[in-house]
Fold Glutathione S-transferase, N-terminal domain.
Amino acid sequence: MSNVISFYDIPSKTGKPWSGNTWKARYALNYKGIPYKTVWVEYPDIEAAAKQIGAAPTGKRPDGTPLYTCPMIHDPSTNTAVSESLAIAEYLDRQYPDTPRLLPPGTTALQHAFMTVFQPLGGPALQFALPATHRYLTPASEGYFRFHREKAFGKIMETWTPTGPERDVEWAKVKASFNTLDGWLQAGKADGPFFGGKIPCFSDFAVGARLIWYKLIFGEDGEKWKDILTWNEGRWAAYTESLKPYEAVL
Amino acid sequence: MSNVISFYDIPSKTGKPWSGNTWKARYALNYKGIPYKTVWVEYPDIEAAAKQIGAAPTGKRPDGTPLYTCPMIHDPSTNTAVSESLAIAEYLDRQYPDTPRLLPPGTTALQHAFMTVFQPLGGPALQFALPATHRYLTPASEGYFRFHREKAFGKIMETWTPTGPERDVEWAKVKASFNTLDGWLQAGKADGPFFGGKIPCFSDFAVGARLIWYKLIFGEDGEKWKDILTWNEGRWAAYTESLKPYEAVL
């Protein structure tokens, strides 16, 4: 095992990381400048990898059995495994106090509240994003991803994305979710462009992770991504640009 | 007119302020130690008072006409009127930069997001709280309050509060809303007992205002308030206690 943090991420056909969940922790590690090494793990292998390093489950499956997810990390310097992005951020802030804070004092409870309201804001986009995601997975992950997502949504993935007039109605809901985020950032504009003010905090990396997920799966030249870049007077173009320094894949 | 800020609040039969909305701004003024004088204004007189000082409406009535609400302030030093608690907090932070911040840099956008998720958390308690509130209003406000609330809810106020087994089901939803708040504060406990960490911020005064409203209308010795004080290992008893230094009525 390496002597740096092992960071467990899910591969894609492109060879690039793509998950809107794992990117939160990757941004966090890069922002803090903590050395790490990516361990690529296919969906069907996440549970075994988690058990091997001792990472806790992050939820339950519909049948009540424990659910293991990426991101997760193993830090050899403390022999500690941590799963779930916010828990990873808290661990890194605590264990590496000389690095920039993801949860500055006086923002932890607020950022937890933010994540509670941010999570469902991603709902309307899932019908567009998940079927697109599916196309990027390697054969080893594809069947697993389809099986569990289709079980949860109750219909085959190819029928999820609306077309025709319904497509416009549903896409407008995605835009509305960004309007909500924009409203909060507008309100804080005297602080700076980020939820963290002049500098990003964990909540910004959660927003950035969602954006980079859309960018990858809708395609940099795709209509949907180009549409997003025009919203809220180009805020999301500037926002993604400003997080680029933290997009290394180590 | 006085040479200190005029703070417009709604009176009650008890002679004490009671509104869960105006308390947010009262806490804010007290916390910052900014001199002010309460101007008591009955519900039917809010609109005229707002227009007199030039305070903007804060929303629209169902029929589309502008809605004027308390709290509002008029600051004679700048001849500025501000309505709505968060806007008042932002004005006070900006205008009185040497006083403790309600929205410390790097928390403004997060606190706006917090208020978006905090507001509907108060929903389940309204069926218990609004009819109780009604009993505290002066005759000048009571008819107005009843008319507009009953129009919005579609039934007479005396039938709102559930009884029997339904009461327990609905009261459990109130408890669940406090569990959510407690969860966020638990997550931030290393920062301190407040959403602001070691010291309160605007979001804490919003929580405190909701609590002090319940305390007044359910009664300090009432079953419901005593119930709340036992929840989340006594967090709300400690929390209300810690905000007592900011409860002056000037």
